[in-house]
Write a structure and sequence with these properties.
heterodimer; A: 734 residues; alpha+beta; Alpha-Beta Plaits; Rossmann fold; 26 strands; B: 59 residues; mainly alpha; 2 helices
């Protein structure tokens, strides 16, 4: 009894976090309902030309489908069918062998991002066109055109270049203006200054029929920097659309009971006092108290407990728990925005605030770089004013210095590497949500794992079939197959894998919260909790147990264990071999935690850890100077995920946990985690090399520029060669 | 040198033609699904005639 009340207190404390997380989602669902007709289905298995035509043909053959188009890059199909819903079309695709899931179209708000991407691409196109045309004319000037011909070429260049610089350089001007208004010197300030100065000086020289014009350099600068910006944008857009897809898979709906009738509503529409029905296998949509029904509740995502808990009338449930066996009617006590779940949300917000903002390598470089560039240009202007007293010559030299030092390669140095690295990691099943996550991951020296759902699969597996006599196996399969309880499913899966054929039962009925009862050849059979079946609970069990009792046979005790995630042992071993400290923090019982730790060869572990303790443990490690990588999936990990230096959660994690983490593990295998740290270290090395390359070019070229020896040809060469070598260096990443 | 008065406009016009084609392809969203486009070319559907445009209203 004491244990039960402790559970309740726990549930009350954690209550609404998933709900408050779900609230904005639910509002978006309401918005989606308004514009019916556009359905988006996810097609995780589509991969070839045949898949495209199969899917499109099958969908178009359905009456009411007006347009169906597969997007293979995103593995989605867009359907325009105003009179149909996803429930009508998913079976059509499943019949021809394609897995399909409904995506919440309103969450996939990619249109704004797409427009931004197209906008940058358009500017790149314009800059590229101008660059090529001006370069043709410039080559003629460099090869010796003089007099009226040179002036004419300069004029034509000016006519092409000036509008181009204004149009293509707009993103830089806007961001430079914003950073100046905020009193900072970003990377975009020297870029904008160089663009304006180069165009202005060149125009002035053209009017006065001077020798040097830098139109080609100004346009080329725009082009290369826009390419860097586009790479940066792509990386973030790909990560965001995949993350959105995970969110969109969970359409938050609840079954409302009104005057005895069931009605499907959005979670946002629930009010305290409403009665909702939670079917077996469904996630609890809101906090509340059970008023009818018996079942078992899986709260592993909230607390890390791997054993299901019994729930009957009077039990308090928290949103995010999963109902296992019987239908439950729940009176809602808090839903959506109103829910009292603020404690954990607070914890997450506080943890994020204390983590502080991480200054990326690029930011630190630009913080150093901008003042140096401006001082250099000012210095050369002063020097030449002092030498010649001619402001025109001095300004020309200063412009040349600004153009040569302009961070063309610097602008590409980071995005090129990050694009290459995140593309490689994505192929291995790791999605990077945050731009600086790679750099932070490279610094990691301590890894903290959650147990249930992270190191383990979070679902039981039969330890051994040996206790079960051969003649009872068909019966066991038949009765286990009748239930959706995880232990029954595990038993059925193990028996089916042995090639056992199910027996035919006379009757079968689930007794929610206890087990399943049936009749076979006149014998009563029961599968379920030990105390219900009539066998005393065996002493000191360290895992879930189910008992099969058949009249006339001795009861059989079946033991289950929470199976380790594939690759977990390899991952832990690889991390330890790399000299990193590996720690397990779990909310589960000490026995279960100790056994998992022994299986994985981990020496540091703590059991029965509350969410607050997890966050405190991570904070203590960070204060001791460790760079912590937190890997976790549950609500109880959320604060720790937000507090850690960098964090990873599996795709099966709760939405709140995924939002709090920097990376998402898409597959089942845990092995990419260890590989990702190595990849991140390699990426950081490449970024530093790229900085070195672009600085080396500057060190060679800047003295020439200050001496007034730089020509537009030199500027063009330095710019393109350094940009290309930086990009090639990024592609060396393996 | 008079040839320049023909050649320079020609080169700029050709470049502008390329730019216009690029902007058109961008506007008609031809870069949305590069992987799908690479695969679609292998399908023998619509080889004889292009896919008819979608019907705008329900029959």
């Amino acid at each position: 009894m004491a244990e039960l009340s402790a559970d309740r207190e726990y549930a009350a404390r954690l209550s609404a976090c998933p709900a408050c997380d779900a609230a904005p989602l639910a509002e978006r669902v309401a918005g989606a309902a308004a514009q019916r007709g556009d359905l988006v289905l996810s097609l995780p298995t589509a991969h070839c030309a045949t898949c495209i035509s199969d899917v499109e043909r099958a969908l178009l053959a359905q009456p009411g489908v007006r347009v169906a188009r597969v997007n293979l890059t995103l593995r989605r199909v867009m359907i325009d069918a105003p009179s149909l819903s996803a429930e009508d079309l998913i079976p059509v695709l499943e019949r021809i062998g394609y897995e399909a899931h409904e995506l919440d179209a309103s969450v996939l708000s990619s249109t704004a991002a797409e427009r931004q991407g197209r906008d940058i691409l358009m500017r790149i196109g314009v800059a590229g066109f101008a660059m090529m045309n001006i370069m043709i004319l410039s080559v003629a000037v460099w090869s010796g055109a003089t007099g009226a011909t040179r002036d004419m070429f300069h004029w034509i260049s000016a006519v092409i270049a000036l509008p181009t610089v204004i149009f293509a350089g707009k993103p830089f001007f806007v961001s430079a203006w914003n950073s100046l208004k905020a009193g900072r010197l970003g990377m975009d300030v020297p870029i904008s200054l160089a663009l304006i100065l180069a165009s202005g000086i060149s125009l002035f020289e053209t009017i006065n029929s001077g020798h040097h014009a830098y139109f080609d350099a100004a346009v080329m600068l725009c082009f290369f920097l826009l390419v860097g910006r586009y790479l940066d944008f792509r990386t973030r857009a790909v990560a965001r659309s995949a993350a959105e897809e995970l969110t969109a898979l969970e359409v938050p709906r609840a079954v409302l009971l009104k005057d005895g009738a069931e009605q499907v509503v959005g979670v946002a529409d629930l009010r305290p006092g409403d009665v909702i029905r939670i079917r077996p296998g469904a996630r609890v949509a809101a906090d509340g108290e059970v008023i009818a029904g018996m079942s078992e509740i899986d709260r592993s995502l909230l607390t890390g407990e791997s054993l299901p808990v019994q729930a009957g009338p009077g039990a308090v449930l928290a949103a995010g728990e999963v109902n296992l066996t019987g239908p439950l009617d729940l009176r809602v006590s808090a839903a959506g925005r109103d829910s009292s779940l603020t404690r954990l949300a607070h914890l997450v917000a506080m943890a994020e605030a204390t983590r502080g903002r991480y200054a990326s390598l690029a930011e630190r470089a630009s913080r150093l770089y901008s003042p140096v560039v401006h001082l250099l240009a000012l210095f050369s202007y002063g020097l030449w004013m002092y030498w010649t007293g001619d402001w025109r010559v001095a300004l020309n030299v200063a412009a040349a210095v600004l153009i040569i030092t302009c961070p063309c390669a610097l602008g590409l140095a980071v995005p090129a590497v990050v694009t290459a690295a995140s593309g490689k990691l994505f192929k291995r099943g790791l999605l990077i949500k945050d731009g600086t996550a790679l750099e932070r991951l490279a610094e990691v020296d301590t890894v903290v794992f959650d147990k249930t759902g992270t190191l383990t699969m979070g679902r039981p597996e039969l330890v051994s079939l040996d206790p079960l006599p051969d003649d009872l196996r068909p019966v066991a399969l038949a009765i286990a197959g009748a239930s959706s309880h995880p232990l029954s499913r595990a038993l059925a899966a193990a028996l089916a894998a042995e090639g056992v054929a199910p027996a035919v039962l006379d009757s079968v009925a689930e007794v929610p919260g206890f087990g399943i009862e049936g009749a076979w050849r006149g014998l009563r059979i029961r599968l379920g909790r030990a105390d219900w079946v009539g066998k005393e609970t065996p002493e000191a069990e360290d895992g879930p147990v189910s008992v099969l009792a058949v009249d006339g046979h001795a009861p059989v005790t079946l033991r289950f264990t929470d199976a380790l995630r594939p690759g977990a042992a390899d991952c832990v071993a690889a991390l330890r071999a790399g000299g990193r400290r590996v720690i397990m923090l779990s909310g589960d019982t000490p026995a279960a935690v100790a056994r998992a730790a022994a299986d994985l060869g981990m020496t540091e572990f703590r059991a029965s850890v509350t969410p607050q303790d997890k966050e405190a443990a991570v904070a203590a490690l960070s204060e001791a100077g460790a760079k912590v990588l937190m890997v976790g999936d549950g609500l109880n990990d959320t604060a720790a995920l937000a507090r850690a230096h960098v964090s990873i959660s599996p795709a099966t994690a709760l939405d709140a946990a995924r939002v709090a983490s920097d990376m998402v593990l898409m597959g089942q295998d845990l092995a990419p985690v260890a590989g990702a740290i190595e990849m991140a270290r390699q990426a950081r090395r490449r970024i530093k090399e790229n900085f070195a390359i672009s600085i080396a070019y500057n060190i060679v070229a800047v003295p020439f520029a200050i001496m007034g020896l730089a020509t537009p040809l030199m500027a063009a060469l330095a710019m393109s060669v350094s940009s290309v070598s930086v990009t090639l260096n990024a592609l060396r990443l393996r | 040198m008079e040839i320049l008065f023909i050649l320079i406009p020609v080169s700029i016009l050709l470049g502008a033609g390329g730019l216009a084609a690029f902007l058109w392809s961008l506007k008609t969203r031809q870069y949305d699904d590069p992987k799908g486009d690479a695969e679609r070319i292998l399908s023998s559907e619509w080889d004889d005639h292009p896919r008819p445009p979608p019907q705008k209203s329900e029959p």
